[in-house]
Amino acid sequence: MSAIIINKANPEDLEILQKLGRETFYETFAKSNSEEAMQKYLDESFATEKIKTELNNPDSQFFIAWEEDNPIGYLKLNSGKAQTELQDELSLEIERIYVKAEYHGKKIGQLLYDKSLEIARQQYKKYIWLGVWEENVRAVNFYKKNGFVEFDKHIFRLGDDEQTDLMMKKTLD
């Protein structure tokens, strides 16, 4: 495996983020959800206008992991009013860390997570938080290994299905 580079995404990366987002979300959750619900979610969440708005929001940042010229994963961070729930000025939300399935187990998620820590410290945040589907055991264990603890739950809707997300946070030094 070549060296992995993580670059901040900009508006010119819109199509790359759409494709990467759709592909990695589908790989992660398709076997647990209906095809109809998956397509509806993908069409809404990765619509051109939605991603364009997010890319242009100064309180949101995307980072893409590259192996040579191949995008293999991405990270989306939110601060301030861009956070999906808490909107605490002292916190940074990891909204998404997704890696292509063929790169699972190769520490790409860890590199993206480490980038989130770097950003949180640069912004003098007191804690990082996120929501993760309770049945995504791989992700829950990843966050626990990195020092996150559960502090609440919320409902994530995928089609007609209400799924429980664990809300987890990590206090920074």
Automatic annotation (TrEMBL):
N-acetyltransferase domain sequence ranges: 4-173
Pfam families for the chain: Acetyltransf_1 (PF00583)
GO molecular function terms attached to this record: acyltransferase activity, transferring groups other than amino-acyl groups
Keywords, alphabetical: Acyltransferase, Transferase
Record-given protein name: Spermine/spermidine N-acetyltransferase
Native source species: Chryseobacterium wanjuense
